[in-house]
Amino acid sequence: MTVPENRQFRLKARPTGRIERSHFDFATQPAPEPGPGQALVRVQYLSLDPTNRIWMSDMDQYMPPVAIGEVMRGGGIGVVMKSESDRYQVGDHVMGLTGWQDYCLADEGENAMAVLPANLPIPLSAMLGACGMTGLTAYFGLLEIGRPQVGETVLVSAAAGAVGSVVGQIAKIRGCRVVGIAGGEAKCRYLLDELGFDAAVDYKASDWREQLAAATPDGIDVNFENVGGEIMEAVMARMNLFGRMPLCGMISGYNSGEPMRADFSSILMRRIEVRGFIVSDFMDRFPAATQELATWYLEGRLKHQETVIDGLEQAPEAVNLLFDGGNRGKLVVRVSDD
Ligand code: NDP
User: What does the radius of gyration of the chain's CA atoms come to, in whole angstroms?
Assistant: First the structure.
């Protein structure tokens, strides 16, 4: 086999605001040769996530920041092209940290990639979305930290996005009243008409605070927080006593470089239980949860929506869609064909 070319985005400079192409070197080199215990993987789908922006920065974070000169970190799915490992067979689909490149090496041990079952009845990209890390984030944040009860009001922000849309659907499956906050009328209609939410609040409308009050006449029992800032504060001010708040993300602050703040008075007065989490906290329970998400998906109870961008070369500009609200559901880059 001739050695294929491997295009890679390497971080050149840390963004101070929006992500620009100039923050990366886009270089081409021969794909690496797998050593003993390794496999060569051709990347098919790259997951674009708000956390990519965090990893590019040197803010306090849950993994080391991507070093200057390093291939940009990113989750993805690929196919094994060549293997020197018993763990990986040629043709296997694998999932893990592929990086922003055409080819990567899969290792064994603690950094091993997950091998997906053959003949999966689920589209590959959904394994990055509703049935993958995105779905798992929604699942554990909502069910373990939010602990919603039948009939309670669950509110989720960034509700038409990847995690938010799954949170709302799981809350419906669990018999809750679900309110979503999203930007624009079209996304709000999507929440109501296609995902079955009970109410939607358009935070880009001038009367969004009134909309929020009208949508939550009995207050809010669980706030699945994805956004932070003034939306979070307005939501917290409507929470019921002893409400729960899984703190999943604060995307409104990621580009600012400023510390992400919250008003603690609502937490005290309403005795809100706030817990930050990272999906990997629940790693030992991923297999059973993935099974449940996949079952809901195959039963038609959990919809996977995605926004697909074609071409690895689009990755830096495409991440900004997450900050502009340009995506609906999971944002992925198709790097090569299935
Ligand atoms: P999404 O698909 O939800 O995309 C981000 C969405 O956020 C956009 O579509 C946009 O929707 C909304 N948004 C962006 N900026 C703002 C803003 N300033 N104010 C209000 N809304 C805004 O991304 P994900 O589902 O991947 O991530 C959602 C959140 O979950 C993020 O905070 C992310 O960091 C977090 N996360 C946390 C994980 C964990 O383990 N803790 C794992 C995965 C994600 P709109 O058009 O409605 O404005």
Answer: 20
Q: What is the mean pLDDT of residues 70-98?
A: 98
DSSP run (H or E) holding 320: helix 315-324
Secondary structure (DSSP) of 208-234: HHHHHHHH-TT-EEEEEBSS-HHHHHH
Query: What token pair was written down for 183?
Result: 């930007």
Scan for tokens 């956004």, then name that residue.
227
Distance 261 CA to ligand 1 centre (A): 17
Tens-digit pLDDT profile for residues 239-271: 999 999 999 999 999 999 888 888 899 999 999
All domains in the chain, ordered by first residue: 5-129+304-334 (3.90.180.10), 133-280 (3.40.50.720)
Q: What letters, b where the CB count within 10 A reaches 16 and e where it falls short, cover 167-198? A: bbbbbbebebbbbbbbbeeebbebbeeebebb
Q: What is the pLDDT of residues 161-181, one digit of tens each?
A: 999 999 999 999 999 999 999
Residue 37 exposed, middle or buried by CB count within 10 Å (0-12, 13-18, 19+)? middle
CA of 134, closest atom in ligand 1: 43
- Which protein residue's CA is at the shortest distance from atom 46 of ligand 1? 325
Pairing of strands 24-30, 103-106: unpaired
- Per-residue pLDDT reduced to its tens digit, 25-37: 999 999 999 999 9
Residue 120 Cα to ligand 1 midpoint, Å, equals 28
% of the chain surpassing 90 pLDDT: 95
